[in-house]
């Protein structure tokens, strides 16, 4: 049996890593008059569909996908949410 | 009274808009041997802290920030989650 999962993946810079994009957005917001905004951090939000035998198989595959391609684990953290959407076969 | 909120903002391409980055990631995953992945869409995940009088004031400000700077509303959708973190004054 194969199950289709919808995955939501959040890739964020590790807290210790500087975030020039976040800093740029923060100053952009200041230029718009928002002086009440701080700690702006920019990351990636990835959605995808994958099929697997079960949830733990899907999780294992996502971990490898994140480690190898979706995140640079030297400077980034990742987390994901899985939602079963359909039984495929 | 001023309340500090932690905001999580998700900026995604509208469904009708092509996603070359998503397509590139999808073929990258195929090269890694993952032929069970589809519908890859890449978006922005923004975290920030803002202070406001109450939640509805914070929501209104975030809407303007998204409309003016954080999202290109011609081709992108946005949604956000607000979490009260502290009473500042």
UniProtKB/TrEMBL annotation, chains A, B:
Record's protein name: Phosphoribosylformylglycinamidine synthase subunit PurS
Sequence similarity: Belongs to the PurS family.
Pfam families reported in the protein's UniProt record: PurS (PF02700)
GO cellular-component term (any): cytoplasm
Statement: the UniProt record of this protein carries the keyword ATP-binding: yes
Its EC number(s): 6.3.5.3
Domain of life: Bacteria
Catalysed reaction, written as an equation: N(2)-formyl-N(1)-(5-phospho-beta-D-ribosyl)glycinamide + L-glutamine + ATP + H2O = 2-formamido-N(1)-(5-O-phospho-beta-D-ribosyl)acetamidine + L-glutamate + ADP + phosphate + H(+)
Task of the protein: Part of the phosphoribosylformylglycinamidine synthase complex involved in the purines biosynthetic pathway. Catalyzes the ATP-dependent conversion of formylglycinamide ribonucleotide (FGAR) and glutamine to yield formylglycinamidine ribonucleotide (FGAM) and glutamate. The FGAM synthase complex is composed of three subunits. PurQ produces an ammonia molecule by converting glutamine to glutamate. PurL transfers the ammonia molecule to FGAR to form FGAM in an ATP-dependent manner.
Record text on subunit structure and interactions: Part of the FGAM synthase complex composed of 1 PurL, 1 PurQ and 2 PurS subunits.
Pathway stated in the Swiss-Prot or TrEMBL entry: Purine metabolism; IMP biosynthesis via de novo pathway; 5-amino-1-(5-phospho-D-ribosyl)imidazole from N(2)-formyl-N(1)-(5-phospho-D-ribosyl)glycinamide: step 1/2
Keywords from the named record: ATP-binding, Cytoplasm, Ligase, Nucleotide-binding, Purine biosynthesis
GO MF assignments: ATP binding; phosphoribosylformylglycinamidine synthase activity
Top class in the EC scheme: ligase
Subcellular location as annotated: Cytoplasm
A biological-process GO annotation: 'de novo' IMP biosynthetic process
């Amino acid at each position: 049996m194969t199950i289709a999962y919808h995955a939501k993946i959040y890739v964020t810079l590790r807290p210790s890593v500087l975030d020039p994009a976040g800093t740029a957005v923060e100053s952009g917001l200041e230029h718009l008059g928002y002086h009440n905004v701080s700690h702006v951090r920019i990351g990636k939000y990835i959605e995808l569909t994958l099929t697997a035998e079960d949830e733990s198989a899907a999780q294992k595959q996502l971990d490898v996908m994140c480690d190898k391609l979706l995140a640079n684990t030297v400077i980034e953290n990742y987390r994901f949410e899985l939602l079963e959407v359909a039984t495929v076969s």
